[in-house]
Amino acid sequence: MELFILFSSLITLAAFFSYLNVKFFRIPSGISLMLMGVIVALGVIVAGYFSTGFTEIIREKLLLIDFSEFLLGILLSFLLFAGSLHVSIPDLRESAKSIISFATLGTLISTAAVGFALFYILPIFNQNIPLIYCLLFGALISPTDPIAVMGILKKAGLSKKIETNIVGESLFNDGIGVVIFATLMKIAVAGTESFGPADITKLFLQEAAGGILAGLVIGYIGYRLMKSIDHFQTEILISLAMVMGGYSLCHSLHVSGPLAMVVAGIMTGNRGKEFAMSDITRDYLGKFWEVTDEVLNAVLFMLIGLEIVVVAFDINYLIIGVIMAFVIILARFFSLYFPSLLFSFKKSLGTKSLLIMTWGGLRGGISVALSLSLPPSPFKNIIVSITFVIVIFSIIIQGITVEKVIKKLSN
Hints:
It is a multi-pass membrane protein. One of its GO terms (biological process) is sodium ion import across plasma membrane. The chain has helices spanning about 1-25, 30-50, 55-60, 65-85, 90-95, 95-120, 130-140, 145-155, 160-190, 195-225, 230-255, 255-275, 280-305, 315-340, 345-350, 350-360, 365-370, 380-410. By secondary structure, it is mainly alpha-helical. The protein has two domains: about 1-60, no CATH class; about 70-295 and about 310-410, Up-down Bundle (Na+/H+ antiporter like fold). α9 crosses α10 (about 195-225), α11 (about 230-255) crosses α13 (about 280-305) and α17 (about 365-370) runs antiparallel to α18 (about 380-410). The radius of gyration is 21 Å and the shape is globular.
């Protein structure tokens, strides 16, 4: 019952702040909800100074939700599937070279650049973390968050090509980033001496290729089932089964669930909508997943803001987080610029487009969830704290200014 009350409170807060935003502020919903969540969290912390134990009571209630498990195990499957339903295969084909290179090579470059930067910046503040944990931080913070990206860039007025690159890359580099993180996590836990290059390659391919294959199978089965009937209620249930059952299956098989959901969603949103659904089903299924996406996004962004209450902050962590936020933006640009030069599509995409993609590459709940999923260690608290600072900076600062940046660079 306590968990139900907590979720009821989150939904109520999200609905109230969404109403205020639509009525008065009219800023992107993700930004407004996280901002309101941060303000409420700070209010709780301040109230704790006047009422002994108040903050602790709120912290205990929030700890009823395992944020990492809640997002990575439940929300992520729904949000990635819902987001990928709107991705056009012809548009993906047109930008396939850039999306694939950004999502794979770009994520690896950013992981290494951010990891080594953190490793050398920390000693300045009398902090020391093993390199493998710095690289883990690089892996969890490098992928752009498709949930944050799609929520905030919906009304940004991007050209179709740039929008496809940003959304397509964020959907796939999310899955790749989780795979890199899982691989590095196993190395950190087992010890670097237990893993050679062959073991790392095998683990990476099992997660990534296995996830893509699983997504193709899940998408095809869903497509065949939907094509054999014309009953929109049942077809919506089938789409839910693809997400919930498919994600659970991927977890059991130790393959990438996020990549599977992206692939299954793209298949359903293209081949499924075109050949397996009537106009009525297409309309209802689209609206169902749009509402689901909005509700879950509202809960997620509100929860990210409130989770500040459960994080132990230190002024040094705050300073390191702000420094790393700028380092990550530089690493982001380099991780886009280098592949575009290497694979000869920089000219067709343009430097201005790369700058828009750099500033529009937001970090969000997935980075927070991955940091919280780290096993207990002396280094976990600083990584979680720095991650929170970067995510808040990314969504609020970059999110608020991205529309102005796009307009300035598009002129």
